[in-house]
Amino acid sequence: MEKTAPDKAGAVGIFDSGYGGLTVLSGIKSILPDYDYIYLGDNARAPYGNRSFERVYEFTLEAVEWFFKQGCHLVILACNTASAKALRTIQQVNLPLIDSSRRVLGVIRPTAEYVGLLSKTKHIGIMGTEGTIQSKSYEIEIAKLHPEMTVTGEACPMWVPLVENREYNKPGADYFIKQHVENLLNKDPQIDTIILGCTHYPLLMDKIKRYLPENISVVSQGNIVADSLKDYLNRHPEIDAKCTKGGTTGYFTTDSPDKFNYQASIFLEEQIVAENATL
Ligand code: DGL
Fold first, then answer.
1. Which end of the chain is more exposed for a tag (fewer CB within 10 A), N or C?
2. Which atom of ligand 1 is found nearest the CA of 49?
3. Cβ of residue 277 lying under 6 Å from some atom of ligand 1
4. Whether the CB of 257 sits within 6 Å of ligand 1
5. Average pLDDT per run of 10 along the chain, which is 279 residues long?
6. CATH 3.40.50.1860: does it fit domain 12-106+223-276?
């Protein structure tokens, strides 16, 4: 079977394991509203956060191939876990075999680039899923760009379920949020900047700030990834030319579209109509 659609221009693909990537999509659309986008949530197999490297790679590659079949030339893995566990292999091993002119980008590198501008103490905290923290991807990327920085991670396995189950605004959420914020600051009290290294966490921002001293800043990724994508498209006109500009967004899910439409309203302030995708 053909692995890619014919070589005409297509939408920009935005991938997440579930709903969290919608926070990145919002950031991208606010800065680049003229492009066409296709969002895919692999809701049937989410969460990815505690899955093995092999599974996350396998699922993410299937998603990338699905985007290529939809005509996308550029796919953003708007999922930290997929970026941490699958991006490098897809870029280095799969893309040359599938179609070396297509591009797959992640969210960790742009975040690592940006964070160098922020910290005065040079001590950074990362909050993410178990998969992202165990992969040490942030430590590795930040060390390449800012070797003077000390990076400390904290896995927060309950935070995604709190968001997915609409419990994040309720009092029970405070217990898990306080616990992980305190754990992180106990590991390194010099931290002055915290990266929310998971696409779901921006929804917890208010509660996270409640348990942080005021001098610590918290960074979420939507705008960072959007700025980085804009810069990338400026520097790569050949890829930009392969991205259609009609201002449309199509939503796809591997699970029930009705459930997706309902849950996505937590993340987006608009009604959407998703379609089912089979990977
Ligand atoms: N979207 C994922 C991330 O940014 C978190 C959700 C999941 O565990 O699948 O890491």
1. N
2. 8
3. no
4. no
5. 68 95 94 97 93 96 98 96 95 96 96 87 96 93 94 96 87 95 97 95 94 93 93 97 97 96 84 94
6. yes
Catalytic residue among 72, 156, 198, 243: 198
The DSSP code sequence of the chain is: --SS--SS-BPEEEEESSSTHHHHHHHHHHH-TTS-EEEEE-GGG---TTS-HHHHHHHHHHHHHHHHHTT-SEEEE--HHHHHHTHHHIIIIIHHHH-TT-EEE-SHHHHHHHHTTT-SSSEEEEEE-HHHHHHTHHHHHHHHH-TT-EEEEEE-TTHHHHHHTT-TTSHHHHHHHHHHHHHHHHH-TT--EEEE-STTGGGGHHHHHHTS-TT-EEE-SHHHHHHHHHHHHHH-HHHHTTB--S--EEEEESS-HHHHHHHHHHH-SS----EE---
CATH of region 109-220, choose from 2.30.130.30, 3.40.50.1860, 1.10.10.10, 1.10.150.120: 3.40.50.1860
**pLDDT the model gives residue 117:** 79
Q: Which of 108, 132, 135, 198 to mutate to test the pocket of ligand 1 (most atoms within 8 A of CB)?
A: 198
Instruction: Take atom 6 of ligand 1 and give the residue whose Cα is closest.
Output: 47
For the question of residue 156 being annotated catalytic, the response is no
